[in-house]
Design a protein that fits this description.
The structure holds 2 protein chains of 2 kinds. Chain A is of the alpha/beta class. Helices cover 30% and strands 26% of the residues of chain A. In chain A, the strands form 2 sheets. Chain A has an 8-stranded mixed sheet, with helices on both faces. Chain A has a 4-stranded antiparallel sheet with strand order 2-1-4-5, covered by helices on one side. In chain A, helix 3 crosses helix 4, helix 3 runs parallel beside helix 5 and helix 6 packs parallel to helix 7. Chain A starts with a strand and ends in a 7-residue tail after the last strand. Chain B has a single domain, classed as 3-Layer(aba) Sandwich (Rossmann fold), CATH 3.40.50. By secondary structure, chain B is α/β, with parallel strands linked by helices. Classes of the chains: A alpha/beta, B alpha/beta. At the A-B interface, helix 5, helix 6 and helix 9 of A face helix 4, helix 5 and helix 6 of B.
């Protein structure tokens, strides 16, 4: 359904006066999603997870330039096609209530989404009622403004915005942080249901635990590049390929809670070689000389020369 | 001691109570966890304790005095959405300096790149911006810190890194810390004491192991 290869995103910034500089925030991003599948995208903040969603929807800021290819149902996704498809065929569940209009009731906003996706007014209103009931939001919530919602209620309203459309590809950008575990499970199950209905679902999250509950496959991003694509079951069985994925798994509070020191490289100072080389225990001369390519390994994909079969 | 005594809050006279008769206290150097289902008024409780909202009934005091209205508030709140707590038209450098000039060691501990300082908030990711919001309040004038789902939006590695930095600061400055979270394993790792808000009963769970305060 969706296939992304070698995606790059570069921001042009004004440095001083009229001098400009280029910031490569996404370098080599690869991802594919099939219909009926949940693909989780996990990684540190600033690894390009949200930018990927913004690129797919054609809502990157004006100073961003794209390279590489994105195909949706076999056809190249141009910015024009993104604009035509978004909100109808490709829908976003945004990250925070900051994406809602603070001066409009939430019921009104979800209804507007349904109407823009092509439903008649009465039908849209009925679908809002149905969706709100499905997410355990009472009718009175329709008349509330975003600031009057609790964090969990806001999240359910945001999920509703995508469910009232008939989108074939749903991108959920961090739908779970700060929710009670029961609500997380429920929200994730609803995403799973969307996949069972035949839609493709991209679950963008930093919460590996949440991702593993519903995802078929997990793509791990680091500093704007895909370092590993693994099956969800590979995490529990210890079949992880990339040192960063292994570190991420170890640092969970329920595992060892031991972080790898340091930081993702800044887009202003990307190393010539492997982007993880400065924090990696396996680092060697080959790593710092050249960027490793994404290669197939143990029925997954990895961008590391040292990962073994 | 930061103390919220018999706090009640509702948004209007006819609205339902969001916070009903809650009493919460945290001592300097103590890490208190606060856990409850969504919609139980945890965030509102945090806002009341930090003086963002005035309680309908009850009072909030620091060492028996009410919160100051004009100067730097010794009770600081970091919440889940950092984009709502920074001025979108300011550069990061200016945002960081709003309370107190930032300590370079603290920026280092939180993994803040010097390259970010000239950017605007929309040019950072949510997690990067959250570190800015945290760095801004880690200064000597802060006596109590309320972390409302502070790392809920961060990846596991960054979450562990940030808590390492924050707990070191908390231990060094003897800051009273309230951690509001849904993440049970995280609270077990961080807190001396956990309060469970459920229905009308407040139950106490004591004694989870603390890891970083000892090692850091």
């Amino acid at each position: 359904m969706l296939s992304i290869s070698n995606l790059g995103v570069t921001f042009t910034q004004y440095d001083q006066g009229l001098r400009r500089k280029q910031l490569a925030v996404i370098t080599d991003l690869d991802l594919d999603v099939k219909a009926g599948e949940v693909v989780a995208v996990v990684g540190a903040s600033g690894s390009g997870k949200s930018l990927l969603a913004h690129a797919l929807l054609g809502i990157l800021p004006e100073n961003a330039a794209l390279s590489g290819t994105m195909r949706f149902k076999g056809e190249i996704l141009t910015p024009e096609r993104c604009r035509a498809l978004r909100g109808k065929t490709i829908a976003l569940i945004p990250q925070s209530i900051g994406y809602l209009d603070p001066l409009m009731t939430v019921g009104g906003q979800v209804q507007r989404v349904a109407q823009l996706a092509g439903r008649a007014k009465a039908e849209a209103s009925a679908s809002v009622s149905k969706t709100f009931a499905r997410y355990n939001l009472s009718e009175t919530v329709r008349d509330r403004y975003p600031f009057q919602l609790s964090g969990g209620m806001a999240r359910r309203v945001l999920v509703s915005t995508a469910v009232v459309t008939q989108a074939q590809l749903v991108i959920a950008d961090e739908p779970t942080p700060g929710l009670h575990p029961d609500v997380v499970v429920e929200t994730l199950n609803h995403l799973r249901e969307l996949a069972v209905e035949g839609r493709g679902v991209i679950l963008i999250t930093h919460d590996i635990e949440a991702a593993l509950q519903i995802a078929d496959r997990v793509a791990v991003f680091y500093a704007g590049t895909t370092v590993e694509i693994a099956a969800a079951k590979d995490f529990l069985s210890g079949n992880l390929r990339h040192p960063y994925t292994q570190a991420l798994w170890r640092s969970l509070p329920q595992n060892e809670f031991i972080p790898v020191p340091g930081n993702q490289p800044s887009p202003e100072q990307l190393p010539v070689g492997c982007l993880f080389s400065d924090r990696c225990d396996w680092v060697s001369e080959t790593c710092t000389a050249e960027r490793p390519q994404l290669r197939e390994l143990r029925s997954g994909w990895v961008r590391c020369v040292h990962a073994k079969g | 001691m930061l103390k919220g005594s018999r706090l009640w809050f509702r948004y209007g006279n006819r609205q339902p109570w969001v916070v009903e008769d809650r009493t919460v206290a945290v001592a300097p150097g103590e890490v208190l966890g606060l856990m409850a289902p969504s919609g139980y008024g945890k965030t509102t409780l945090g806002k009341l304790l930090a003086g963002y909202l005035a309680p309908t009934r009850g009072s909030v005091t620091v060492d028996e005095r009410s919160l100051p209205k004009k100067r730097y508030n010794p009770v600081q709140l970091v919440f889940q959405n950092p984009e709502l707590s920074v001025n979108p038209r300011w550069r990061i450098r200016q945002i960081l300096a709003e309370g107190c000039p930032p300590d370079p060691a603290c920026l280092e501990a939180l993994g803040i790149h010097s390259g970010w300082l000239n950017r605007y908030p929309h040019e950072l990711s949510g997690g990067e911006l959250q570190r800015i919001a945290i760095a801004r309040i880690l200064n000597p004038s802060t006596q109590y810190l309320i972390a409302d789902e502070m790392t809920a939006m961060l990846d596991a590695n960054t979450q562990a890194l940030i808590w390492q930095g924050v707990l070191a600061f908390v231990a060094q400055q003897q800051i009273g810390l309230i951690v509001i979270s849904h993440d049970d394993p995280l609270l077990q790792r961080l807190c001396d004491r956990i309060l469970l808000l459920a229905d009308d009963a407040v139950s106490k769970v004591d004694g989870p192991a603390k890891v970083f305060a000892k090692t850091a």
